[in-house]
Design brief:
By secondary structure, the protein is mostly helical. The chain has 2 domains: about 5-50, no CATH class; about 80-235, Alpha Horseshoe (Serine Threonine Protein Phosphatase 5, Tetratricopeptide repeat). It has helices at about 5-20, 30-40, 45-50, 80-100, 105-120, 130-150, 155-170, 175-185, 190-205, 210-235; strands spanning about 1-5, 55.
Amino acid sequence: PQHVVLYPLVSKSLRNIAAGKDPLEGQRHCCSIAQLHEHYSLGYPDLDELQKNPQPLIFDIEVLKVEAPGSYQQDPWAMTDEEKLQAVPLIHKEGNELYRQGKVQEAAAKYYDAIACLKNLQMKEQPGSPDWIELDQKITPLLLNYCQCKLQCEEYYEVLDHCSSILNKYEDNVKAYFKRGKAHAAVWNVAEAQADFAKVLSLDPSLRPVVSKELRSLEARLREKDAEDKIRFKGIFSQ
């Protein structure tokens, strides 16, 4: 056994990592005692108690799995800027493969990780600068892939938000209009959906068959909804 004075702070970082957070979240560059004095709590009662009353600790280490050399992938927060840039195409490829396998949620997580890497790099650049724009153009296709996953997961308002953010910068992005049109249609924003699909056709007339299919589907859903509403209101007024 050994006294480990800094263990509560280390444990907090490890718990943040396990929760997918930045391990240094809420920390400043000062000693653990100063951290405790400033924040009064580490966020975990057991760690607070250990911080106040240090005591010998014994660690039991269990091997969960053994990975082959070169197979370990760092979390984005642990990568250098160069490692982030190199990792993005690989993560993108992994996301595409998961999507082809029908693992939509897992694919979305991969796209999110790739976007996070690029966003982290972009924050270090002057908005609108050539480097910032270059990174943004790499983010856009990843964000559209992420939106495709969210469409399939029926998380339509997130799709509306992300596609609108893309279109605020790139007014001629056909894929963003199409995905936003599908999301609008799903949440019964009929006029907005029709406007987005019309924009798709004006930008790329070759997509008319695909757009026509979406519009027919929307019209069929509207007729079905109208029929259901008539039955429902008929029941109300006949009482």
